[in-house]
Design brief:
The chain is of the alpha/beta class. The longest helix is centred in the middle third of the chain and has 23 residues, at 79-101. Helix 6 packs across helix 7 (149-158). Helices cover 53% and strands 12% of the residues. InterPro entries: Depp_CoAkinase (IPR001977), P-loop_NTPase (IPR027417). Keywords: ATP-binding, Coenzyme A biosynthesis, Cytoplasm, Kinase, Nucleotide-binding, Transferase. Pathway: Cofactor biosynthesis; coenzyme A biosynthesis; CoA from (R)-pantothenate: step 5/5. Its EC number is 2.7.1.24.
Length: 204
């Protein structure tokens, strides 16, 4: 079993940047968001179940999932969220575990935006939180997604609070600085730490 570091943080915290920097050090990355897309790809049983439950209006012309339409349905009828989560979460978890077991690097990074919210910390040996001031989180996300402030604030409110994430953290990366130099140095230090921990992992 690989040594697994769970990477999490709020929207706009810089998880993708951090994951890319670790990948540049030769660390394999398992991304829950990519897996979530794969389980609803055309031809997957989950997509057929979604179309049966919500109707073909949640499908694009090419038969793929229309995420915007699905979000609208779930927003209008919150009870659908529970149904959707019950369908998708076990599938995503199963694939995350399988992908983590298949890694060849000394340790892997499991990137899960809702690691704390969905009680998935049991899947990892360390929890690494990317921490950003909420104001910066908001401005970065608005600039990145071209979304309005109200929408981003609603997403932030639905996620775990900053204090809740930090309470679950074994390690914290401060990503408030405008340049990457401090972040790169911190990641290199954590990389050395995780290599040492992974070498101890599984020893009797």
């Amino acid at each position: 079993m690989s040594f697994i570091v769970g990477l999490t943080g709020g929207i706009g915290s810089g998880k993708s940047t951090v994951a890319d920097l670790f990948a540049g050090l030769g660390v394999e990355v398992v991304d829950a968001d990519l897996i979530a897309r794969d389980v609803v790809a055309p031809g997957e049983p989950a997509l057929a179940a979604i179309a049966e439950h919500f109707g073909t209006a949640v499908l694009n012309a090419d038969g793929g999932l229309d995420r915007r339409a699905l979000r609208a349905r779930v927003f209008e009828h919150p009870e659908h969220k529970d149904w959707l989560n019950a369908l998708l979460h076990p599938l995503i978890r199963e694939r995350m575990v399988a992908a983590s077991k298949a890694v060849r690097s000394p340790y892997c990074l499991l990137v899960v935006p809702l690691l704390v919210e969905n009680n998935l910390t049991g899947l990892v040996q360390r929890v690494l939180v990317v921490d950003v001031d909420p104001e910066l989180q908001l401005t970065r996300t608005m600039a990145r997604d071209c979304a309005d402030e109200t929408q981003i604030k609603a997403i932030m409110a639905a996620q775990a609070g900053r204090e809740q994430r930090l309470a679950a953290a074994d390690d914290v990366l401060d990503n408030n600085a405008p340049d990457k130099n401090a972040l790169v140095a911190a990641i290199e230090a954590l990389h050395r730490q995780y290599l040492a921990l992974s070498a101890q992992h599984g020893r009797p």
